[in-house]
């Protein structure tokens, strides 16, 4: 019955949901400015009979859609924000911006939001037709790209009601995620000095730009003494002016610290702040540190991953047409990848995964499901899904909506966001997640295993949100 209901619920809405994904692709709204995208998804939720709540935790583009009653309560996470400077014409296999400098969906979040919505609708249909107990909540979570929307929502209790959460991410492979990732902390540093004539009155000036440069030098020395898995990135957003004959009175930079554990990221960040304060002392300037956002590392959950794997293998992968393959081949020809590094990555996932990889030769579109990975290490990216995973058991899948090894955050990714194969794969992801949620609604034993595993992984300290109270979300 589950299989039939899920397939009918999603297949019958194929055009409606694909059109919604395309509209969100068109909107291409960045962090905390996703007003059209949020409104469009909310309208669909309301039309489907969900109880919609907007302005969740005071964030204007955060919302929920709830259906059902009683326990368990399962959340499905959706995203819909775009990235700066990635405008690209759809269906064109060469770099061709629609509007130069405008945003674009370079991480497939138009697909992510709609695939999760499809899952929520299918679960709703199952609850409606079977009368089973349980509640499904679609979470519209803004600003994953650089805004940590879920972290702010987690800090303010949005996910506290959940027994578990399920999500996915568009990818170039079909696989259950079993790894953690990097926690991160980002802040804005503003150095203030005193302007003066650089030749006639240098003794009366104090250079904020010197302070920023000294901070970078200090960070470069620090890099030798932190974990090899840690990362520190920065951008200089204000050098104080274009005139070299002026002692620059202001300079600004944004720093992003990453590490496999949030506690380690916090230590690196504290050290960075000390370096900036020291640079201000050395130059007799001042520094203001504005905490922007943070995300925690993901806490994996093997019990939920097994449920997702079962459903990833249950529903047939999308059919690949001649047109799908030809376009994927054109996209694939525009970039390169490190084949040896890929083999090493797959090998880490275990013997079964490596064997499946070797048996399925390189093709433009992934056509098989990878076995459940044995690897539980760290991937070198970050996601605010991490903070949800500290609040409740959480698991996710990757589904191939794009050509093999398509780089994330690229024009190639944007170009594929409205193609027919992306639509089919997006709704396939919805079916897999819906199947997993339905299984959890009727399987209290697995849910309890997931919760016990979650408690064990968190340890005695539990969840401490890395964003302090008083810090508010902001558009970038």
Structure keywords:
single chain; 476 residues; alpha/beta; Aminopeptidase; Alpha-Beta Plaits; seven-stranded mixed beta sheet; 15 helices; 11 strands; 41% helix
Could you give a short description of this structure?
It is built from 15 helices and eleven strands.
User: CA-to-CA gap between the ends?
Assistant: 46 Å
CATH topology of the largest domain: Aminopeptidase
Question: Stretches where pLDDT falls below 50 for ≥5 residues?
Answer: none
| H/E topology pattern | HHHEEEHEHEEEHEEHEHHHHHEHHH
User: What's the main sheet like?
Assistant: 7 strands, mixed
Q: Percent helix among the residues? A: 40-55%
Give average pLDDT, whole number. 96
**Total discrete domains:** 2
How many beta-strand segments? 11
Work out the strand percent.
Answer: 15-25%
Tell me the overall shape: globular
Overall CATH architecture of the largest domain: 3-Layer(aba) Sandwich
Computed over alpha carbons, the radius of gyration is 23 Å
Task: Report strand order across the widest sheet.
Answer: 1-2-4-3-5-11-6
User: What's the CATH C level of the largest domain?
Assistant: Alpha Beta
Helix count from the secondary structure assignment: 15
* Structural classification: alpha/beta
CATH level-four homologous superfamily name of the largest domain: Zn peptidases
């Amino acid at each position: 019955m589950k299989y039939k209901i899920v397939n009918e619920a999603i297949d019958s809405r194929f055009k409606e949901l694909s059109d919604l994904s395309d509209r969100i692709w068109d909107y291409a709204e960045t962090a905390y400015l996703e007003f059209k995208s949020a409104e469009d998804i909310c309208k669909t939720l309301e039309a489907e009979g969900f109880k919609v709540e907007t302005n969740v935790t005071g964030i204007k583009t955060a919302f929920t859609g709830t259906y059902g009653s009683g326990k368990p309560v399962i959340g499905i996470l959706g995203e819909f924000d775009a990235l700066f400077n990635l405008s690209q014409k759809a269906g064109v296999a060469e770099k061709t911006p629609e509007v130069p400098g405008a945003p674009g969906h370079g991480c497939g979040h138009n697909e992510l939001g709609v695939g999760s919505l499809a899952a929520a609708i299918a679960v709703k249909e199952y609850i409606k037709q079977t009368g089973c107990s349980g509640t499904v909540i679609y979470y519209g979570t803004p600003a994953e790209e650089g805004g940590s929307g879920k972290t702010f929502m987690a800090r303010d209790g949005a996910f506290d009601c959940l027994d578990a959460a399920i999500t996915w991410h568009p990818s170039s492979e079909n696989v259950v995620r079993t790894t953690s990732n990097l926690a991160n902390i980002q802040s804005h540093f503003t150095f203030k000095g005193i302007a003066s004539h650089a030749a006639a009155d240098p003794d009366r000036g104090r250079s904020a730009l010197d302070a920023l440069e000294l901070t970078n030098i200090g960070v470069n020395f620090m890099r030798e003494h932190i974990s090899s898995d840690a990362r520190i990135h920065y951008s200089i957003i204000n050098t104080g002016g274009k005139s070299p004959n002026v002692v620059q009175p202001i300079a600004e930079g944004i720093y992003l610290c990453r590490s496999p554990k949030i506690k380690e990221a916090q230590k690196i960040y504290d050290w960075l702040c000390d370096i900036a304060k020291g640079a201000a002392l050395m130059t007799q300037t001042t520094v203001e540190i504005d905490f922007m956002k943070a995300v925690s590392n993901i806490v994996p959950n093997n019990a939920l991953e097994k449920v997702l794997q079962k459903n990833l293998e249950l529903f047939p992968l999308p059919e690949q047409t001649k047109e799908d393959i030809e376009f994927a081949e054109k996209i694939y020809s525009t970039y390169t990848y490190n084949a040896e590094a890929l083999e090493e990555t797959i090998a880490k996932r275990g013997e079964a995964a490596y064997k499946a990889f070797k048996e399925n030769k390189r093709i433009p579109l992934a056509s098989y499901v990878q076995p459940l990975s044995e690897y539980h290490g760290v991937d070198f990216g970050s996601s605010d899904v991490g903070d949800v995973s500290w609040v409740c058991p959480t698991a996710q899948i990757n589904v191939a909506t794009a050509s093999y090894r398509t780089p994330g955050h690229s024009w190639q990714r944007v170009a594929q966001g409205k193609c027919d194969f992306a639509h089919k794969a997006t709704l396939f992801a919805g079916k897999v997640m819906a199947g997993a949620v339905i299984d959890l609604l009727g399987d209290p034993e697995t849910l309890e295993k997931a919760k016990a595993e979650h408690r064990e992984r968190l340890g005695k300290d539990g969840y401490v949100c890395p964003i302090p109270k008083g810090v508010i979300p902001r558009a970038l």
